[in-house]
């Protein structure tokens, strides 16, 4: 009698593989937010393992776990903070791993989860589209009905994903081409410049801020073309893929822009100029930063610093030498960050814009929040408040913990913590000196800042419950 094929080891392995594959498919659709968090956590573990290899370090010895983990988190979360000198500690192999990691991380938590979900399910179904749409509007991650117009509609998600991939490739390639001559003029060897140009381009567009050389961009501090190209790359990365998509479709037809695009561009430009004016006023007579520079260079570097505190992470001045007032301004700019669904971090400029509009409408006594002929519903305002509250709580707890561990001045710790939370990468010099317990706290702060406070809240929520009744109204006294 022939043996039952179902009793064979091969059949059991095949059956187990199918069950595992089915469970993975179910995970991609059961909870978009939790799946996104799982994807990022898995990527961090993979890159931690890769950076722990002896081949990844210049010395040929395995990196300590704390340094490998922190660098992996900073890479995947496109933060830019580091506990080691990025230009000398890692080998060429390690630098390539980091280069790949920042581009993977730049795709965004939910967009990346959507792409992997697409690979698993072989098609971009409604659930997968909800995952990707969540990156353009975090409220979709909560499930349920969203009653306002979306920044990108579900039917356009496939086009958006192509826009993400294509824009990343084209923009980074264009920046690299523009940077290459400046690197040659700066004394970099032609073959080395072929590597450093795309590396700097990737770090600018992804808003990471790592440098492939020990001195960073300090050698190019008077090359205004180089610095301007870097600022342009940071700006394009920080406005967000939905805005890039809108600009690609409608160019300069402002009236056809989505409300999200209008608020993002206007708020970004306003903060860019406000930050530059603040740094100019506070640092023009500081000999350790701008005080020794001429008038033109002082003004230009004020704008450059303003752009980089939004999420860029590059600097030509010693951040640790800034006045305390300037550190506070920088912390405020970093906390806001860039646009939604972008490579930047922070609470996002649209959150600030919506809350500012809400305050203005309340002062004017208007019954609703309005902008550019559109009404912003109350649930958007509630999400904005939630984002600020979550972000402030994370920053406060991390600052208290690291201050207690290190006994460093709270203003210094606060700056680096916000830099980590908002995935900026600027540092007063504190991060490189952190003991291992504080390193882990900072890594967790970067992780929570990158995956997004709304996504984090949705991921830890057990379930969304519908309430089919209304409670009596009573107004507490506020203010």
Description:
It is a multi-pass membrane protein. Keywords: Cell membrane, Ion transport, Membrane, Transmembrane, Transmembrane helix, Transport. The chain has 479 residues and is mainly alpha-helical. The chain has one domain (25-456). Helices cover 64% and strands 1% of the residues. It has helices at 9-30, 32-51, 65-76, 86-89, 92-106, 109-121, 126-136, 157-185, 190-205, 224-239, 241-250, 259-283, 295-312, 324-336, 349-364, 378-406, 410-421, 436-451, 453-460; strands spanning 369-371, 374-376. A hairpin with a 2-residue loop joins strand 1 and strand 2. Mean pLDDT is 82; it is low at 139-152.
| Coarse morphology | globular
- Beta-strand content bin: under 5%
**Which structural class is indicated by helix and strand composition?**
mainly alpha
Contiguous low-pLDDT stretches (5 residues minimum) are 139-152
Strand order of the largest sheet: 1-2
Count the domains. 1
What share of residues is helical? 55-70%
Total number of beta strands: 2
Distance from N terminus to C terminus (CA atoms, Å) equals: 85 Å
Average the pLDDT over all residues and give the rounded result: 82
User: So what's the oligomer here?
Assistant: single chain
Number of helices: 19
Radius of gyration: 23 Å
Instruction: Describe the largest sheet.
Output: 2 strands, antiparallel
């Amino acid at each position: 009698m022939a043996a039952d094929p179902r009793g064979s080891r091969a059949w059991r392995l095949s059956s187990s593989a199918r069950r595992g594959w089915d469970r993975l498919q179910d995970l991609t659709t059961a909870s978009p937010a939790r799946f996104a968090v799982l994807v990022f956590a898995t990527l961090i573990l993979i890159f931690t393992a890769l950076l722990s290899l002896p081949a990844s370090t210049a010395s040929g010895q395995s990196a300590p776990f704390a340094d490998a983990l922190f660098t992996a988190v900073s890479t995947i979360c496109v933060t830019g903070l580091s506990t080691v000198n990025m230009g000398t500690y890692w080998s060429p192999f390690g630098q390539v791993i980091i280069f790949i990691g920042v581009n993977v991380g730049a795709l965004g938590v939910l967009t990346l989860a959507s792409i992997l979900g697409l690979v698993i399910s072989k098609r971009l179904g409604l659930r997968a589209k909800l995952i990707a749409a969540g990156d353009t509007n975090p409220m979709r991650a909560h499930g349920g009905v969203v009653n306002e117009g979306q920044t990108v509609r579900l039917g356009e998600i496939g086009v958006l994903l192509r826009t993400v991939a294509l824009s990343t490739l084209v923009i980074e390639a264009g920046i690299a081409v523009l940077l290459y001559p400046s690197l040659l003029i700066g004394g970099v060897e032609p073959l080395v410049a072929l590597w450093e140009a795309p590396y700097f381009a990737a770090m600018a567009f992804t808003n990471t801020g790592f440098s492939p050389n020990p001195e960073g961009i300090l050698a190019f501090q008077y090359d205004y073309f180089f610095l301007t190209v870097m600022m342009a790359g940071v700006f394009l990365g920080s406005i967000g893929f939905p805005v890039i998509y809108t600009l690609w479709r409608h160019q300069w037809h402002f009236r056809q822009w989505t409300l999200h695009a209008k608020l993002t561009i206007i708020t970004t430009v306003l903060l860019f100029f406000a930050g530059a004016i603040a740094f100019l006023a506070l640092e023009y007579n500081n000999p350790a930063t701008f005080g020794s520079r001429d008038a033109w260079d002082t003004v230009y570097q004020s704008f450059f610093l303003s752009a980089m505190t939004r999420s860029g992470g590059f600097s030509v001045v010693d951040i640790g030498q800034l006045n305390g007032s300037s550190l506070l301004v920088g912390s405020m700019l970093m906390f806001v960050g860039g646009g939604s669904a972008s490579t930047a971090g922070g609470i996002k400029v649209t959150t600030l814009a919506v809350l500012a509009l809400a305050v203005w409408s309340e002062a004017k006594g208007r019954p609703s929040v309005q902008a550019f002929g559109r009404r912003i519903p109350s649930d958007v305002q509630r999400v904005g408040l939630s984002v600020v509250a979550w972000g402030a709580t994370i920053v406060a707890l991390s600052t208290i913990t690291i201050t207690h561990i290190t006994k460093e001045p709270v203003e210094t710790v606060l700056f680096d913590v916000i830099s980590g939370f908002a995935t900026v990468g600027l540092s007063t010099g504190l991060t490189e000196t952190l003991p291992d317990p504080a390193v882990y706290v900072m890594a967790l702060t970067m992780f929570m800042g990158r995956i997004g406070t709304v996504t984090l809240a949705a991921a830890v929520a057990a379930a969304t419950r519908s309430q089919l009744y209304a409670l009596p109204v009573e107004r507490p006294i506020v203010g």
